[in-house]
# Entry
Amino acid sequence: MSGVEGFMYPNEIELQWSVLIVLYPFITGLVAGAFILASLERVFLVEAVKPTYRLALLTALAFLLDAPLPLQLHLGHPERSPEMYFTPHSTSAMAMFGYVYLWYLMAVLVLEIWLDYRRDIVILSRKSKGLLRLIYKVMTLGSSNISPRSLAIDEKVGWVVTLIGIPSAFLLHGYVGFIFGSIKANPWWSSPLMPVVFIFSAMVSGIAAVMLLYMSATKMRRKAIDMRCVDTIAMYLFYIFIIDFSLEMLDLIHRIYEADESFRSLNFMVHTRLYFSHIVIQIFLGTLTPLILLFLTQVVKLTEVLRKRVYATSGCLAMIGIFAMRWNVVIGGQLFSKSFLGYTTYKMALVTREGFLVAIGLTILPLIFLWILVKLLPPWPEQSLHAPAPGD
# Structure
């Protein structure tokens, strides 16, 4: 019965994880990638990307606030989720996510943003009026000392927090790959390379997202795009993309060489059910095409206008490819039976708790969060409050 389409045993009919579980690793990947881009300026002293430093931090926070929502909607009783904090289960990777999330949100990302913006927040709390004044007052956390010595301490502590945040970002997203890679019963997921592939693909999507946001926001503000900054970001995106693609190809070659009892079933699925999403979208459209475009920008002297278009196209295609990778892992890993005797399909509803409209809403929501954050804490260098504040 090998290769039978549409037949599965009764206990294997429904997919347990929907599009919301596809969104979850995609969103957390954007968080990790954006933070890594921010760390290039602060820890690795890549001055060229400085114009995107604050934007990258705010982008990471906006998507991090949205990250647990797909899981909450997927749960039948989301009100029970706080129980993981009160009844910890140290052997459950899923349960430990709550602690990793809180650590990264409160101890790393929010703290770094607060330290970086503290001087601006104090000045804004003095200059603003009404509700905004109250909001900024609360955000100061009672710390109004912005003397040179105090700001120097902020800078040192912020550097340490960023340094700690780099492995924390890897942990936040790497554990998602760990969950899939540790499921031995599913040969599509069971691979020791899965966490590493997830981390590097997260860096690709996050860096591409910040690059696109920076270019779009700068154009909407009618300001000149810092091409030195964008060129440097595109260079790092290209190199990391090569590593990500190499790891995925290494995993694929290993599966083909090993060719265990599941290979025939998985090979059939890739050439049928997942052909369009895996071969066409993920590999050709979302990986090879942006790699070729980015390669051209590294070896050919293109005009500034053409480089902008190539970067925008490459960034969009890269994000589409990474989302397709998440889709193929989560959904594709559930389309074949545990006995390798049959296959099923996934039909996404339009208006349900885990339907298409909800997925679109969860994708747009972090952009709304980011808009609010940008209004409260402007990330643009020309809007930074460099002038001495009263009482400095």
Remarks:
- The longest strand covers residues 4-5.
- Strands lie at 4-5, 342-343.
- Residues 1-6, 387-392 have pLDDT under 50 and may be disordered.
